[in-house]
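Extended Data, panel c. Modelled sequence:
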Amino acid sequence: MRKLIGTQPLMVAGATVVVINDKRKVLLQQRSDINKWGFPGGVMEFGETLEETAARELYEETGLWASDLNFIDILSGEKECHKYPNGDEIFGITAVYTTSSINGELVIKDGRAYI
Protein backbone atom coordinates (compact mmCIF):
# COMPACT_ATOMS: atom_id res chain seq x y z
CA MET A 1 0.00 0.00 0.00
CA ARG A 2 2.78 2.43 0.92
CA LYS A 3 4.31 1.88 -2.54
CA LEU A 4 1.12 3.29 -4.03
CA ILE A 5 0.41 6.20 -1.71
CA GLY A 6 3.77 7.03 -0.15
CA THR A 7 3.51 8.61 3.30
CA GLN A 8 -0.09 9.83 2.83
CA PRO A 9 -2.36 9.16 5.85
CA LEU A 10 -3.88 5.67 6.08
CA MET A 11 -6.73 4.51 8.28
CA VAL A 12 -5.60 1.31 10.03
CA ALA A 13 -7.28 -1.08 12.45
CA GLY A 14 -5.28 -2.66 15.21
CA ALA A 15 -5.33 -4.01 18.74
CA THR A 16 -3.38 -3.66 21.95
CA VAL A 17 -3.22 -5.74 25.14
CA VAL A 18 -2.91 -4.56 28.73
CA VAL A 19 -1.16 -7.46 30.51
CA ILE A 20 -1.71 -7.51 34.29
CA ASN A 21 0.34 -9.99 36.31
CA ASP A 22 -0.61 -11.67 39.60
CA LYS A 23 0.95 -8.76 41.56
CA ARG A 24 -1.36 -6.32 39.68
CA LYS A 25 1.60 -4.87 37.74
CA VAL A 26 1.15 -3.84 34.11
CA LEU A 27 3.51 -4.75 31.27
CA LEU A 28 4.82 -1.75 29.33
CA GLN A 29 6.91 -1.84 26.16
CA GLN A 30 9.18 0.90 24.87
CA ARG A 31 8.66 0.86 21.11
CA SER A 32 11.78 1.29 19.02
CA ASP A 33 9.93 2.93 16.09
CA ILE A 34 8.58 5.91 18.06
CA ASN A 35 10.65 5.63 21.28
CA LYS A 36 7.54 5.78 23.51
CA TRP A 37 6.22 3.53 26.25
CA GLY A 38 2.91 1.76 25.71
CA PHE A 39 1.17 -1.58 25.60
CA PRO A 40 2.08 -4.39 23.17
CA GLY A 41 0.00 -4.27 20.03
CA GLY A 42 -0.10 -3.53 16.35
CA VAL A 43 -1.93 -3.50 13.06
CA MET A 44 -4.49 -6.05 11.93
CA GLU A 45 -3.54 -8.42 9.13
CA PHE A 46 -5.95 -9.31 6.32
CA GLY A 47 -8.59 -11.79 7.48
CA GLU A 48 -7.90 -11.48 11.22
CA THR A 49 -10.35 -10.59 13.94
CA LEU A 50 -9.34 -7.86 16.36
CA GLU A 51 -8.94 -10.46 19.10
CA GLU A 52 -6.65 -12.54 16.87
CA THR A 53 -4.64 -9.40 16.14
CA ALA A 54 -4.25 -8.69 19.85
CA ALA A 55 -3.09 -12.24 20.62
CA ARG A 56 -0.68 -12.38 17.66
CA GLU A 57 0.85 -8.97 18.34
CA LEU A 58 1.29 -9.77 22.03
CA TYR A 59 3.16 -12.96 21.10
CA GLU A 60 5.25 -11.35 18.35
CA GLU A 61 6.36 -8.50 20.60
CA THR A 62 6.73 -10.26 23.95
CA GLY A 63 6.80 -14.05 23.52
CA LEU A 64 3.66 -14.28 25.70
CA TRP A 65 0.40 -16.00 24.76
CA ALA A 66 -2.86 -14.74 26.20
CA SER A 67 -5.35 -17.51 26.90
CA ASP A 68 -8.14 -15.11 27.83
CA LEU A 69 -8.62 -11.64 26.32
CA ASN A 70 -11.24 -9.24 27.67
CA PHE A 71 -12.44 -6.42 25.42
CA ILE A 72 -12.30 -2.97 27.07
CA ASP A 73 -12.78 -0.21 24.49
CA ILE A 74 -12.08 1.16 21.01
CA LEU A 75 -9.64 4.07 20.71
CA SER A 76 -10.11 6.51 17.84
CA GLY A 77 -10.05 10.22 17.14
CA GLU A 78 -7.39 12.89 16.97
CA LYS A 79 -5.19 11.23 19.63
CA GLU A 80 -4.89 8.20 17.36
CA CYS A 81 -3.36 10.20 14.49
CA HIS A 82 0.37 9.44 14.35
CA LYS A 83 3.27 10.48 12.17
CA TYR A 84 6.23 8.12 12.27
CA PRO A 85 9.88 9.21 11.97
CA ASN A 86 9.97 7.90 8.37
CA GLY A 87 7.08 10.26 7.45
CA ASP A 88 4.29 7.64 7.33
CA GLU A 89 1.02 8.92 8.76
CA ILE A 90 -1.81 6.82 10.17
CA PHE A 91 -5.22 7.29 11.71
CA GLY A 92 -5.59 4.34 14.07
CA ILE A 93 -8.71 2.59 15.24
CA THR A 94 -7.49 0.40 18.08
CA ALA A 95 -9.28 -2.27 20.09
CA VAL A 96 -8.04 -2.50 23.68
CA TYR A 97 -8.01 -5.80 25.55
CA THR A 98 -6.81 -6.88 28.99
CA THR A 99 -5.50 -10.22 30.16
CA SER A 100 -4.09 -11.73 33.30
CA SER A 101 -3.93 -15.22 31.80
CA ILE A 102 -0.57 -15.45 30.05
CA ASN A 103 1.75 -18.29 29.13
CA GLY A 104 5.32 -18.26 27.92
CA GLU A 105 8.48 -16.43 28.83
CA LEU A 106 8.79 -12.68 28.46
CA VAL A 107 11.16 -11.95 25.59
CA ILE A 108 10.94 -8.42 24.25
CA LYS A 109 11.51 -8.47 20.49
CA ASP A 110 11.15 -4.71 19.97
CA GLY A 111 12.44 -2.03 22.34
CA ARG A 112 12.43 -2.62 26.10
CA ALA A 113 9.90 -3.84 28.67
CA TYR A 114 8.93 -2.83 32.17
CA ILE A 115 6.58 -4.67 34.49
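The chain has a mean pLDDT of 89. This feature is highlighted in the accompanying rendering.
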